[in-house]
Hints:
Immunoglobulin-like, single chain
Amino acid sequence: MKNIKSFLAVCAIFTLVLAGCSKDEPGTNDGPASSETAILQLGPILNSPETRAAIRQQEGQDIPDCSDEAPGFAQLSIIYGPDDTVKENIIIPILEDDQGLFTAYSEELELPIPAGETTVSVTLTQFVVWTNDGGSPGEVIWVAPIEGSEYADFVDQPVGENFTFDLRAGSKNYINVDVICYDDRDVNLYGYQFFTITPIPLIKFCIFGNYCTPEGRHFVASYSVNVWESNDGQKGDPIYTGLQNVVEGEGGDAYSDPLCFFLPDRLDVDDNEEEYYVEITLLSDTPGYNGPDIVFAEGPITVTEIKLFFGEDGTLDYYHFQYGCDDGVPPPFGQPETKRYKACIKYLDDSDEVAGFAYLSLEGSVLQAVTSVFGLKVGEMHPQHIHENASCGDYGPVAVSLDYNEGGFPVAQLFNNVSFLNYAETIPGFFLQDLEDRTVVIHGKDVNGEYVATEPVACGEFEEY
Length: 465
């Protein structure tokens, strides 16, 4: 794993998903279709200035003025199928060709056809259009009014329980949606009084990987990623399914960019509490690899841990796995058969601005240990140990030293003007039990103007994850 540089709270606006158009066959939108599914794509249709003027005269009230900004993303909610399955706040880019606007293909809108049927019923309940602000949603500019709202008469077909249509199996179905311009002072008049039209803060996370043959030759990896919401290390609702990197070329000449995606970074949830469960699968078409698809890395990651991959200058590092190589699968993820433990490291004295993480991965009697700590004395060696007890209030005697096999403890370095200690080591012949009832203690700080290597400075309590 590359050196992680520093904390930086970086937010992106959640990519909104949707596209469609009033045409028979848009040319820029390829996606899978089968006899068991139907693909929904939507096309926002904004009424003309002349129509808006006529509405003003006929209705005797003002229709909101329009922004000059171009549409970039759509956000929608639907109900579909015999069980009235609900999908809310689906976010999709809006594309455009010579026939108009349309939403991009999305797996979220590839809907299953009920057994024995050739169509599936869909109801569009919400539809909002955003601008494109540097590749992320910016501001709301158009909205489809909801049935029964003050502005519902401004369109031929408002969204809601009567905006229902059937999608045919094995085909792409393009549905037009009437939208009007948006004024944030009048959100209730569109019928969205129970729906807050606000950007969703996001954070970007990237993954890159290599595969090593038993002989040690490196190849770029072909891999897929699944992501779920997570609570206490358990999988929740899926967010992404089957994300894949793109490998160009063959054999040793193959190459790939990191696979990047966005995850919510909610302002009302503590970064240490907001977590996601990631599963990485090595694919059989990996250059140099002659095996089946295999899930080799999984586990939860918090927003705080994701922010460790951001540099002080806004640069973004990526999570780097090397399947079959010496570096293997770095934390916070691990191989499915391993036991994994994590400790959130925090200062013992609030005058010391020290924080970080420690990770332990145990397979049999081989321990992989990693610590990443900020705020320590630069240029000094910092002893660190696993201690006997479970609480930082009384961590007890040393159980195992987290030093290098060749001797010595890690030294804090300066990265982008931030003190950072990065340690990773494989410890064979490890037999300490009950790691979830242990602590990690980092030592070394100035005392009365003099550096004391044995002085405890930070501690973390391990828990299995």
